[in-house]
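Honest question from a wet-lab person: if I give you the sequences of every part of a complex, can you actually get the arrangement of the whole thing, not just the pieces? Trying it with mine:
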Amino acid sequence: MKTLGIWLASFVLLSLESPMLETLQMSAFAPDVTIVAALYLGTTSPFVTGLAAAALLGLMRDGFALSSPVGLYAELTALAFLASRSLSKRVDLKSPIPLMATAAGLCLASNLLFLVLSVVFHREFVLQAESFRMVLPLALLTMLVAPIQFALLATVERLFRRRRDGDVLFG
Amino acid sequence: MRALFARYKNILVLALCLALPLVSVYFHGKRRTGHTVVEGVLLHVTGPIQSTTKGAVDGARGLASDYLMLVDVKRENHRLVRENEELLGEALRSRGLRADLSRLKETCEFREARRDLRTVVARVVLRDTTQNLRVLRIVIDATQFEDVKEGQAVITPAGVVGQISRVSGGYAEVMLATDARSQINATIVGKGVTGTAQGKGYKNEFGARFVYLERADREGRIERDDVVVTTGHDRVFPPGLEIGYISTDETKQTGLYHEFDLTPAVAFAMLEQVLVVTDRGGAGDVEQIFDKREKISGKPPKIDSANRPD
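Yes, you can. This is the full assembly:
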């Protein structure tokens, strides 16, 4: 249930991201919400449910970005979850600085992998200098958003956990 | 089977979550037309959600701009009100200018047609009216013109206004064609009838009449709306200028004289400027002058119903 709650909250953030950025006239500067969500799932959720949730969240992102092949973001988000899961054992992701650095690194790696997979699999993809130019700014933006999104997802997790505790009382 | 699954659950899910998307990427990355089932399903799921969230964000933005962010609205409102007033003033001025231009055009056309006349343009500064708003006399500004004298004809492109009765201090008083003292030698165009256009303007009467001596050899019957013009024989008014139009078919006979009511051609109440004839050339044929004027202006004679006698 907790994982479902985190997934739903991330999905809502993903849905709101595009129209809100359009309103603020900042459509080109979209932080990677799914990577941060995968990072959170990697630190808090069990393996199976977390991986499934991350892959499904990536699939939803594929739905919002149908210009790239379906499955690309699902793959990247699943890989981000695995990376986050192994990093969480070495890095204290509850502190803001390590969290921000990890988010920036993951986002950077994810964007580069996106370009590689697009070149390999996407026949209609044309690699341009613009694609590389935006990788670093997006990583920095994701780095800034990561602590805020982590706090939001933590609040959602607490809400779902409190409900479960309630069941224990009456169960 | 269940035990096998439980033992290798993590690996199976890992393989599934990594392999399936990769296969999908490979398949969807190929060049093709149309969309697949997976794309269709994703579109059906994410499409309504996207439109709902967009609507929600647009609604919130609209609410903020219409009800909360009203800081500039009042200022903008004042600015628009001021701008509207200025534009209204400009529109009214333009309307006035258009009327002035139209008058100027008419005057130029008239002067072009009547080069035999030397005229000066004078502005009407005063209109003397009755209780029923009938104009009895007008005063014109002749300060700029030294050769404006008593007895000179006052006209407009529409026709005869009257005659200067007095000049004093640069201003000239004009006795209108409807004045009881006014008598203008006149003829009816195309009918061969010559007579006098006399004013009837005294007490409660207003207007003019055309008085003539019945002739056996006149051409055709006198009818309503026949044009009465000057003959030039009185040496005051140049020939061929419209005095008015026959108001009615009914005639009144006084001894040998027949009388028709006349509607003046000029709307005295609307006069803004007039032409004073300071010098005349040779007399021309009335019919030819009349026709020439019509050709230049391209307009038939106007009949102003406001000038018809009561």
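Two things worth pointing out. Residues 9 and 153 of chain A are 7 Å apart (CA to CA). Confidence is low (pLDDT under 50) at residues 165-171 of chain A.
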